[in-house]
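Minutes, methods subgroup
Present: GH (chair), OT, SY

1. OT presented the first of two proteins processed in the latest run. Sequence and structure tokens recorded below as shown on screen.
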Amino acid sequence: MTFLIRAATLADIRQMAEVAGPPVTVRSLADWMDGDSAYAAWHLIEDDTGRILGFQHVGRSEALPRDFCEIATFLAPGPLPPGASARLFEATAATARLLRYAAISARIATDNVAARIYYQNRGFRLYSSENSRVSMRFDLD
């Protein structure tokens, strides 16, 4: 199966909400996208039939230093084409560099082992642990 990594748009919202699943809704994604600043970006993986297999968002967070952005990743259940999730992150990281961020931060539920492995495989490292969440960072230098 072939795949394409591209910028996500409002036209993709319905499929993106299906990939994310509850509690994410079409409305909440549309509001999130509409409320984004110029310092945010959305990328997605699309298969050769136009089906969205996953997406990522990076943007500012009040909880982080100004030169950090926060990442959110949503992947469809089941296997992805080989290399798809790595290429998705490469596109996201490249855009974060263009937006002049120094690092990407991921806040992950402690029990979300799959997400921790995903980010660790991309080169993220643990930098904070609080309550039921861990924070991992990827330096963009």
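2. SY then presented the second protein from the same run.
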Amino acid sequence: MDSSLIDAINQYGFPIVAAMGLGYFVYYVWRWVTTEIKPVLGQASSTLVALIDRIRMLDNDMIRLTQKIQMVLELKEQYEKVTGKSFNLDIDEIEKVIDTDYQKPGRKKRNVQK
């Protein structure tokens, strides 16, 4: 052990020296948290807010798409009831119609993703 530590314990007593050591430890941890951890938490918080916003946007898009699909299915049922014909279109047929429609002069061809 260091002789200055022993001299401090002899002069002030062990509880006082131990309290000072714990005080320094608390100060060191507080300084470390405020200088290194707090800025990183701020950046993580802003990233989290941005991700939550994106999730909300995707959720809203999914709700809108679900409503559109439900509307199309209702219109299909109404069409079948009124005409008595089955309304069956294959995805490939729809893509062919879209491709031929957009190949007319003056129109751009759409990129259809599968």
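Chair's summary of item 2: Residues 14-83 form the longest helix (70 residues).
Next meeting: continue with the remaining queue.
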